[in-house]
């Protein structure tokens, strides 16, 4: 897999809003020479307004990403079933 990094150690894929002050960033991250998919919560600092990473998040081996995707797809399907039943 070829990835063009935004910085030396990471390449941002995208982000989603968690709430008014936090969002979840999805990025490729290099750690000890190995590439991971990093899902991390970033929080807006009250005074400066800058965003910084929190300790909340996970790094996933790239080989586990398809399995995670399958689980997320399943969760979406189950969530749709729940919503349809209400």
Protein traits:
alpha+beta; 1 helix; 86 residues; Transcriptional Co-activator pc4, Chain A; disordered N terminus; 23% helix; 4 strands
Characterization of the model:
The protein is of the alpha+beta class and 86 residues long. The protein has one domain (10-84): Transcriptional Co-activator pc4, Chain A (Roll), CATH 2.30.31. 23% of the residues lie in helices and 47% in strands. The protein is built from 1 helix and 4 strands. A hairpin with a 2-residue loop joins strand 2 and strand 3. The longest helix is centred in the C-terminal third of the chain and has 20 residues, at 65-84. It is flat. The chain starts with 9 loop residues before the first strand and ends with a helix.
Gist of the model:
The protein is an alpha+beta fold. The chain contains 1 helix and 4 strands; from the N terminus they run E-E-E-E-H.
The termini sit apart by 42 Å
User: Strand percentage, roughly?
Assistant: over 45%
User: What is the residue-mean pLDDT, rounded to a whole number?
Assistant: 84
Helix percentage: 10-25%
Overall form: flat
Instruction: Tell how many strands the DSSP assignment holds.
Output: 4
Secondary-structure element string: EEEEH
* CATH superfamily placement: Transcriptional Coactivator Pc4, Chain A
Radius of gyration: 16 Å
Structural domain tally: 1
Largest sheet: 4 strands, antiparallel
Low-confidence segments, ≥5 residues, pLDDT <50?
1-8
CATH class category label: Mainly Beta
CATH topology: Transcriptional Co-activator pc4, Chain A
């Amino acid at each position: 897999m070829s990835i063009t990094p935004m910085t030396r150690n990471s390449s941002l894929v995208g982000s989603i809003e968690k709430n008014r002050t936090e969002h979840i960033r999805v990025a490729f991250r290099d750690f000890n020479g190995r590439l991971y998919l990093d899902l991390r919560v970033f929080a807006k600092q009250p005074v400066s307004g800058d965003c910084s990473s929190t300790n909340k998040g996970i790094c996933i081996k790239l080989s586990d990403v398809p399995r995670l995707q399958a689980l997320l797809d399943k969760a979406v399907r189950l969530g749709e079933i729940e919503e349809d039943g209400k």
